Structure prediction request, 175 residues.
Amino acid sequence: MIPSGRQILQFSWVVPDLDAAARRWHQTMGIGPFLVNRHLTIINPLHRGQPIAPDFSTAIAQAGPVQIELVEQHDSGPSCYRDTVPAGHEAMHHVAIIADDYDAALRLYTEGGFAVASSGQFGDVRFCYVDTSATLGHMVEILEDKPTIQAFFGAIARAADRWNGDPETLMRVLG
Prediction:
């Protein structure tokens, strides 16, 4: 169901401790640096149709052609993250795609019988998590293709290309 011309660009795990998880990923897989956004703000957040915004942070690193994203939820409220990964546990949560036509990509999944677990906007970029967990064991995140997301993901790739592997600079806080 991946919209035409798009590939999976990101694999994401929910983790109980963002910093510890990033260190483990670096020590085990050699990837880094992780670009960190703490306590992200979502515009027009919805979870299962209700206006709920979790308190969460992310850390993303480039690993060859894909990104590894780590997500830590700081509160105990409902979220797409808690839908599949209980507090205190660590597990794969979603794969992400960027869609040229966000509405068409979303329609492919909803017409296929999948529900939207969560949606909103990061700045001008719409996103949603489609609950494919019963079929795939994880969700699918659809990101709207905008210059903003392309610039952000480009910065992650450039950081990986330029990084010297120093563990002291493993975490780069963005916000």
